[in-house]
Write a structure and sequence with these properties.
The chain is an alpha+beta fold and 294 residues long. It contains eight helices and eleven strands. The protein has a five-stranded antiparallel β-sheet. Strands 6-7-8 form a three-stranded mixed β-sheet. Helix 1 packs antiparallel against helix 2 and helix 7 crosses helix 8. The protein starts with a strand and ends in a 15-residue tail after the last strand.
């Protein structure tokens, strides 16, 4: 899903063009967050983003108004990735744009695409999940984008007895074997809401942590997925972000260069309060042969 952005003459506003129908006709403006949450699942996601004060929905666009810099300084370079992620998540969720509308009215899933989603969920529940749970893990369907054949799954690999990346390859091969229309599988960490609320890492509950997570999901992880790797935010303490590399990045001889020349630069640019990005990965325990014998 490719979303275009257009700047506005008022620098507190920006237009987003998802390339899909938003409303059947007309437009609606939400300046009250509570009203937006009650009337529109899409607006509800957008109002969850810190700094968003108003949401306008049109036939083929979404316009966001952010807080004035005199009230709270929020840069578009920080806000835009979160808005893009929220819009993409909405369209892949299958929910309507407005409460009371039919799903097909908002062009979320066609009847044929819904059959694909049902088949994905069926394979996960009957073939994949039982084996994964027996090995101490878990997996759940999150979304499907029919425009580029990408499926997003949430996965808990913390208790697996085998490397997570190998398990992910098996899952991807299984789904693509039965459903050739699937082009790629993206994996996100499965979060336990109760555990997150009681986490001993308060840095993960901050606005900066959310900005970094969105950056990882929308820019960094897609770029390194071709090498079989992915990166997770572990914690934020003071002005330091701690990340962990997994998959093909764990034990890779280029891990430090990837961190310093790519990831750290991106994070510090998007979240200016971050001064350092530290890697806490156990690279010696990785499957990459670079570390064999050390």
């Amino acid at each position: 899903m490719f979303i275009q952005t257009l700047p506005h003459e008022d620098d507190t506003r920006m237009k987003f063009l998802p390339g899909r129908q938003v409303l059947v006709s007309g437009y609606v403006v939400f300046e009250d967050a509570q009203e937006g949450r009650e009337r529109s699942p899409l607006a509800a996601r957008l109002f969850d983003i810190p700094g968003v004060t108003a949401v306008e929905l049109g036939d083929d666009y979404v316009t966001i108004t952010k807080q004035d810099d005199n009230v709270h300084k929020t840069l578009w370079i920080q806000l835009k990735p979160m808005v893009l992620a929220a819009i993409m998540d909405h369209y892949m969720s299958g929910l309507p744009v407005m409460v009371g509308e039919n799903k097909t009215t908002t062009a979320s899933y066609s009847e044929e695409d819904q059959k694909t989603v049902d088949a994905i969920i069926g394979l996960i529940e009957t073939r994949i999940k039982p084996q994964l749970q027996d090995d101490g893990g878990d997996v759940a369907f999150k979304s499907y984008d029919p425009t580029d054949g990408v499926v997003v799954l949430e996965m808990d690999s913390s208790g697996l007895s085998t490397p997570a990346f190998g398990t992910q390859i098996k899952i991807e091969n299984t789904l693509k074997h039965f459903l050739p229309q699937i082009d790629r599988i993206k994996f996100e960490r499965m979060e336990d809401p109760e555990a997150a609320a009681n986490s001993d890492r308060p840095g993960l509950q901050t606005e900066e942590a959310e900005q970094i997570r969105v950056l990882l999901e929308t820019r960094i992880n897609p770029a390194i997925a071709a090498h079989g790797g992915y990166i997770t935010l572990i914690d934020i303490q003071d002005s330091t972000a701690y990340v962990e590399m997994a998959g093909g990045c764990q034990g890779c001889g280029m891990a430090d260069a990837t961190l310093k020349q790519g990831i750290e630069v991106e994070i510090k640019t998007a979240v200016p309060m971050i001064e350092r990005v530290l890697d806490v990965t156990d690279h010696a325990g990785g499957a990459n042969p670079y570390y064999v014998g050390y």
